């Protein structure tokens, strides 16, 4: 049954704001499908490039198509000199999501999408360049190192970890990253995707749509939740301490990041997948403390509030186990969700009408202007 907030129309909850053939959320299968495939099925059997191909081009690739797509993306990783110079001027204190936003926007100046015929090229270029872009800035600003972004990495998952750590990642870490990128790739009319579609509906360019979407994803109620979850669990010493701290937060009516969802009612299908990876990573590292703390948080939140972990909660421990700095968590989300955003932009363009809803006016009654000298 709809609650009071839904009935008031706040947050456009439950309202159909457009059509999509890209995904379903909370309707079929485990709760999330991309072009008819269950996300768990995709995460179990595919690598991220296969899913990107599915989302952007409509079908999973065959072996030859996948090899060609990966080769194409691999050849598009270079950072233009002007972009490197901009990245080098952004201070270490900047939020990496601001770096992503600026990087995307700068690329739009250097390699402007001249017509919609270039939309796939513009998207592939962003897919290929984003991991190296953020890690170029991170390594330069934090370690004074100018890294090589044209690595031998075989995939986007490997490319992210390789450009961050400066070496080929383990197979386990590459597998987790692949899975993570698949889980985050697409999610219907969420806030950032809707931002991209609104921008696309004005017939704007791809880089503007993606830059706007990055800005929306940055907030802690959306993509920023995985970082906020990490900041929470790293303050907890052990599962008992986690329970005490969580109970205190609930008493103070604080929001616990990484829990709850605007659409899912009882569970987020992405959670089970990343939770399993988090446990495997903890065991491989010989320290399951963060995982154990996270499991207790999950139990307490369900027991006390019937709130469940969303995709972000166990991503925090999984990313931490792979040595990824907390501030880079949300940029990984960007590297993945770019596929969904771009596909929505393409879908909007293919059947467009400018998105322009109306508002219920709650301001003062009509009045006339008092001349400035009399106010
Ligand atoms: C995702 C989220 C924004 C959904 O918001 P929403 O659909 O507006 O859900 P509501 O805020 O209506 O939630 C219903 C109730 O549960 C509470 N609630 C929801 N999520 C909560 C959380 N993470 N911690 C504590 N309480 C929470 C709300 O305060 C609200 O209580 P109220 O009715 O007394 O005001 C919300 O659950 C949230 O802020 N979660 C934390 C941020 C997060 O993890 N975001 C990533 C989403 S993938």
Automatic annotation (TrEMBL):
A Gene Ontology molecular function term of the record: 2-methylcitrate synthase activity
Pfam families named among the record's database cross-references: Citrate_synt (PF00285)
Residues at the catalytic site: 261, 312
UniProt keywords (A-Z) are: Acyltransferase, Transferase, Tricarboxylic acid cycle
Entry-linked InterPro entries = 2-MeCitrate/Citrate_synth_II, Citrate_synth-like_lrg_a-sub, Citrate_synth-like_sm_a-sub, Citrate_synthase, Citrate_synthase_bac-typ, Citrate_synthase_sf
> Pathway, per UniProt?
Carbohydrate metabolism; tricarboxylic acid cycle; isocitrate from oxaloacetate: step 1/2; Organic acid metabolism; propanoate degradation
One annotated Gene Ontology cellular component of this protein: cytoplasm
Q: Name one GO biological process term.
A: carbohydrate metabolic process
Q: Give yes or no: UniProt keyword Transferase.
A: yes
Per its record, the protein catalyses: propanoyl-CoA + oxaloacetate + H2O = (2S,3S)-2-methylcitrate + CoA + H(+); oxaloacetate + acetyl-CoA + H2O = citrate + CoA + H(+)
Is the keyword Zinc-finger assigned to this protein? no
Q: Please give the family membership noted in the entry.
A: Belongs to the citrate synthase family.
Q: Which PANTHER family match?
A: CITRATE SYNTHASE, CITRATE SYNTHASE-RELATED PROTEIN DDB_G0287281
Q: What is this protein called?
A: Citrate synthase
């Amino acid at each position: 049954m709809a609650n009071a907030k839904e009935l008031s129309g706040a947050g456009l909850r439950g309202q159909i704001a457009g059509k999509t053939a890209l995904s379903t959320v909370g309707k079929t299968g485990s709760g999330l499908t991309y072009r008819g495939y269950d996300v768990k099925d995709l995460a179990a059997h595919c690598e991220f490039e296969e899913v990107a191909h599915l989302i952007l081009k409509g079908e999973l690739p065959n072996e030859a198509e996948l090899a060609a797509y990966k080769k194409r993306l691999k050849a598009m990783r270079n950072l233009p000199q002007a972009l490197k110079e901009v990245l080098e001027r952004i201070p270490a204190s900047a939020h990496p999501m601001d770096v992503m936003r600026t990087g995307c926007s700068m690329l739009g100046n250097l390699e402007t999408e001249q017509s919609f015929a270039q939309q796939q090229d513009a998207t592939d270029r962003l897919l290929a360049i984003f991991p190296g872009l953020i890690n170029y800035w991170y390594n330069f600003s934090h370690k004074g190192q100018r890294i090589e972004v044209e690595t031998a990495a075989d995939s986007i998952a490997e490319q992210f970890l390789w450009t961050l750590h400066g070496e080929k990642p383990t197979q386990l870490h590459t597998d987790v990253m692949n899975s993570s990128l698949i889980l985050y790739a697409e999610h219907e009319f969420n806030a950032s995707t809707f931002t991209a579609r609104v921008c696309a509906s004005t017939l704007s360019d791809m880089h503007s749509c993606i830059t706007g979407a990055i800005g929306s994803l940055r907030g802690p109620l959306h993509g920023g939740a995985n970082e906020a979850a990490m900041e929470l669990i790293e303050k907890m010493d052990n599962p008992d301490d986690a329970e005490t701290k969580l109970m205190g937060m609930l008493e103070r009516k604080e929001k616990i990041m990484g829990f709850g969802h605007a659409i899912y009612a009882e569970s987020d299908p992405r959670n089970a997948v990343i939770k399993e990876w988090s446990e495997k990573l903890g065991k491989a590292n010989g320290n399951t403390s963060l995982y154990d703390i996270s499991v207790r948080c999950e139990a307490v939140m369900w027991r006390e509030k019937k709130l469940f972990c969303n995709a972000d909660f166990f991503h925090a421990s999984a990313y931490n186990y792979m040595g990824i700095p907390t501030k880079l968590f949300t940029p990984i989300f960007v590297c993945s969700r770019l596929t969904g955003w771009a596909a929505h932009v393409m879908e909007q363009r293919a059947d467009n009408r400018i998105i322009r809803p109306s508002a219920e006016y709650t301001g003062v009654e009509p009045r006339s202007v008092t001349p400035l000298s009399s106010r």
